[in-house]
Amino acid sequence: MAVDMVRLLELASWRAFDVDEAGRVLAGSDESGSTQLVELSPNGGATALTALSGAVTGRYLPGERAAIIQHDTGGNERGQLSLMRLDRRRTRPAELDDLQPLVRDPRYVHRLLDVLPGRLVYATNRRNGVDFDVVIRSALTGEEIVVYDGGGMVQEAAASPDSHYLALTLPGEQPMSDQVLLVDTMPTTDGERLRVLTGPGEHTRNTHVRWLPDDSGLVVSSNADRDRVGVARIDPRTGDRTWLVTSEEHDLLGWLAPDGNSLLVQTNDDGAGRLALHDARTGRLRREVPLPADGWCAFPLPSPVWSPDSRLVALSFSAPDVPGDVLVLDAEQEDPPLAMTDSAAALAGERLVTPSVHRVPAPDDEQVPCFAYRPADPTGSSVLIIHGGPEGQSVRTFNPIVQALAAQGHTVLVPNVRGSTGYGKRWYSADDGRKRLDSVRDLAALHDWLPSLGLDPARSALWGGSYGGYMVLAGLAFQPERWAAGVDIVGISSLVTFLENTSPYRRAHREREYGSLAADAEFLREASPLTHVDAISAPLFVIHGANDPRVPLSEAEQLATAVRRGGVECELLVFDDEGHGLAKRANRLDAYPRALAFLTRHLI
Question: Is residue 590 within a helix (H) or strand (E), and if so which, with residue range?
Fold first, then answer.
């Protein structure tokens, strides 16, 4: 019998947030219903550390048996920071009152960026609610130093080994671009406090920034003057770039070891990660790192993290048939990574569906990458699942929605329409600004392709979250004759009201991608599903979190009101304790089986 939705949603998954020199991993497990911290020991033991009301992440405090914990309330993304001592005997997982407060003010966002011996680096928008300042704080005394207050939405920060310099990344002026700044945390009277390493106007990604141990350079994943992302070294004095590892066919991501000798590189092969260890000074390949299956080890999972002694790497790994496991790679041995968890064991040997990879032709001769999950007993119906972002990528990780739909007989298509990452700069730039609806036209190309798989075009639906929710609504509004139903999760119904009402600290960041209210209001209005809501004829199922700081609940409410006014079925589910998506298993168990039943009713 096919595995059902409830069982799939109840599968626990694991992820790795940090690893210490003893081989202990600070992991996240959602066995309790939301992601809580668990410490995994090399001997196979597991100690539950937290039992907070919302999802939790954390990092070890170097040199101490302690962890810095980041947590929010109800998915509102206003992170708060606390300290947990790990050398104290505990009889139960810690609740909020058991933690030592470090940085708490529920009015503002606080994001942990880096950890140093006895100190933490975090970003906060408490100065004006919009711009993010960067602060170094002593975990012992509480003393704070604001090292950057130049404005913008700081994304990454990496401290040099002697803490003299801090490398920051901020969004550039162009969509999907990052500027690298260098901050001198201890400037002399006439010294230069801030140095620009990459210009604000460059159309370049610069991510995963780390220092060489002698402060002689930064190692970054970048696509400066390239279509594909490679790994480069940047001279902090001049900004000059030296390429270490590149590919003309694939995007790469690199993670530098603290000692500066080793570099872990993931090749993005159509959403499957291929890992390898390289010499960090020369880029020379040392060895390939085998993974348990065609899966993935980076965003949306936590990035790989090195132990302070540069011997171990903790990996968060998932594949279509692996819910999520913690692997530990010993860089000094030839062995494959050691699995510290076994999330697939609960399946008791039941086989899940794995995808085939396709290129779907579009009328303008582009090729849309697409995964097809084909059920054992197909009904001829299909569901397209569109990722969020829009600068995101559907990769080969476990998705209980995909597996449950396939178990019901639906063929599931998971495309990477234009605007998606993982296929080069040209592809992710192909929907910027006034080209927004070109990505929506890719949905029509996918619909035209359905008969080649033996699928009935009259029984095809759309499913998507966040920007994927916008794509669902746009497909139903601009192509009403093609789609039989839609499921929209925390989606944008109007690009105008979304930009007007999203959190102030996100508005400028999003306007880079979509266009600005000042200059592009007419286009944004015309590209909004709400403007064309009278054309929607397919039934809709809408899910939203009341605390969503990115796409406000008003986007779902105004859509549902307008669709129902036209006499079209529209069910709206709102969860008072959720934000941008459903983080709690109890809510997923409520919403997703109902959405699946809705689709089955309209497609089969």
Answer: helix 585-603
CB atoms < 10 A from the CB of 191, how many? 8
In angstroms and rounded to an integer, the radius of gyration of the C-alpha atoms of the chain is 24
| CA distance linking residue 383 with residue 368, whole number of Å | 16
Entry field: residues in the chain: 604
Contacts of residue 28, defined as CB under 8 A and 6 or more positions apart, other chains included, come to 14, 15, 16, 17, 35, 36, 37, 38, 56, 57, 302
Bridging pattern class, strands 80-85 and 100-103: antiparallel
310-319 residue pLDDT tens: 999 999 999 9
In contact, 364 and 442? CB cutoff 8 Å = no
How far, in whole angstroms, is CA 58 from its chain's centroid?
16
Q: What is the tens place of the pLDDT at every residue in 502-531?
A: 888 888 778 888 888 888 899 999 999 999
DSSP annotation string for 73-95: STT----EEEEEESSS--SS-B-
Distance CA 259, CA 422 (A): 29
How many CB atoms neighbour CB 105 within 10 A? 11
Q: Which residues contact 455 (CB under 8 A, 6 or more apart)?
A: 378, 380, 381, 382, 411
DSSP 345: G
CB 581 within 8 A of CB 545: yes
The percent of the chain in helix, strand and coil, each rounded to the nearest 5, is 20, 35, 45
Running DSSP on this structure, what letter comes out for residue 5?
Answer: H
Give the span between the Cα atoms of 603 and 516, in whole angstroms: 38
Lookup: tokens for 62: 């170097």
Provide the phi-psi class of 237: left if phi over 0, else alpha when psi is between -120 and 50, else beta: alpha
520: part of which helix (H) or strand (E)? helix 517-526
Spatial separation of the C-alpha atoms in residues 85 and 46, rounded to whole Å? 16
The number of beta carbons lying within 10 Å of the beta carbon of residue 148 is: 23
The sign one gets for the Cα dihedral 398, 177, 231, 60 is: negative
pLDDT one-digit tens code per residue, 189-226? 666 788 999 989 999 999 999 999 988 999 999 999 99
DSSP secondary-structure letter at 201? T
The token pair at 40 is: 């995994």
C-alpha dihedral (483, 488, 492, 497), degrees to nearest 10: 100
